[in-house]
UniProtKB/TrEMBL annotation:
Superkingdom of this protein's organism: Bacteria
Protein name in the entry: Malonyl CoA-acyl carrier protein transacylase
Domain Malonyl-CoA:ACP transacylase (MAT): 6-298
SUPFAM superfamilies: FabD/lysophospholipase-like, Probable ACP-binding domain of malonyl-CoA ACP transacylase
GO biological process: fatty acid biosynthetic process
UniProt GO MF annotations: [acyl-carrier-protein] S-malonyltransferase activity
GO CC aspect terms: cytosol
The enzyme's E.C. designation: 2.3.1.39
Upper taxonomic lineage: Bacteria, Pseudomonadati, Campylobacterota, Epsilonproteobacteria, Campylobacterales
């Protein structure tokens, strides 16, 4: 049986995530403690106690990646012979995929996405940035309306191709708000601003992308196992490719739907680590099963069927 490991992105965070792994796995507990020391972030407080930081990108991003890596570590502890044909993630999740496929160390991955979140916040703090989910329109129609907006000097860009009929667009909040009615008049069932203060995967992040490249250069290993790129939905396995693709990733749309389609015929099932957001999307993209591993019970149940 062949599998692909998949990893969720920003927006999948929730208070208490990873607590079951932390309390019931020595390996997960050690990972969290080592991550706290390495990143100078109190992850126990960040993940398990009420706080405002969990929704700030510089903390959200390492928190989500840590939760995914804890889930992965627990599964591999229980089933050491399990390996994937591919790994991929949604946006931020691509960095979790790179970590488990040995592109860089786990702790370096957490430090890297901490900086990624900070760079994104810094770019978006200069403008009123945001994101909007558009439901019920095909890709071509959304792209056409984004191009129309850009001709009107509005900053609106297709950012996430999640599944058929669901695209997230990014840009300046006033521009997005002004286009809510335009999307609906074109037939969208919904066009709704998301509770986000960043505009991911669009040209507003040019500076963040350049800064991230400098950090990637320091930590990427020369070669690693196959990861599917958000930027082009193709496999890459080298530092040289990663530098180019991850620089593009922040300023280009996430081709999630296309990535799942690209590998679905070569795997028997998917495993999502730390959340179930992608399982929900996958139901609309592929007939292949997705197992979402959010707690110890999920892992035990999964091991009964594979």
């Amino acid at each position: 049986m062949k599998t692909a490991f998949i990893f969720p992105g920003q927006g999948s965070q929730s208070l208490g995530m990873g607590k079951d792994f932390y309390e019931n796995s020595i390996k997960a507990k050690e990972l969290l403690q080592n991550a706290s020391d390495f990143c100078k972030i109190d992850f126990k407080h960040l993940l398990f106690e009420e706080n405002e930081k969990l929704n700030q990108s510089e903390f959200t991003q390492p928190a989500i990646v840590l939760n995914s890596l804890m889930a992965y570590s627990v599964l591999l502890e229980k089933k050491p012979d399990l390996s994937s044909k591919f790994a991929l993630g949604h946006s931020l999740g691509e960095f979790s995929a790179l970590a488990v496929n040995n592109a860089f160390d786990f702790l370096e991955a957490l430090s890297l996405v901490n900086k990624r979140g900070l760079f994104m916040q810094e770019d978006c703090a200069k403008v009123e940035a945001g994101m909007m989910v558009v439901l019920g329109l095909d890709d071509e129609k959304v792209e056409e309306l984004c191009q129309k907006a850009q001709k009107e000097n509005k900053q609106i860009f297709a950012a996430n191709y999640n599944c058929d009929g669901q695209i997230v667009v990014a840009g300046l909040k006033p521009d997005l708000a002004s286009y809510e009615s335009v999307f609906k008049e074109a037939g969208a069932k919904r066009a709704m601003l998301l509770n986000m203060s960043v505009a991911s995967h669009c040209p507003l992040l040019e500076n963040a992308s350049a800064k991230l490249c400098v950090e990637l250069e320091k930590v990427l290993k020369p070669n690693f196992k196959a990861v599917i790129s958000n930027a082009n939905a193709k496999i890459y396995t080298s530092k040289e490719e990663a530098l180019e693709l991850l620089k593009a990733q922040l300023i280009s749309p996430v081709l999630y739907k296309q990535s799942i389609k690209a590998c679905e015929n070569e795997v028997d099932y998917f495993i999502e680590f730390g959340a179930s957001v992608l399982k929900g999307l996958n139901k609309k993209i592929t007939s292949k099963e997705t197992y979402a591993l959010i707690n110890m019970n999920d892992i035990d149940e999964f091991l009964k069927v594979v």
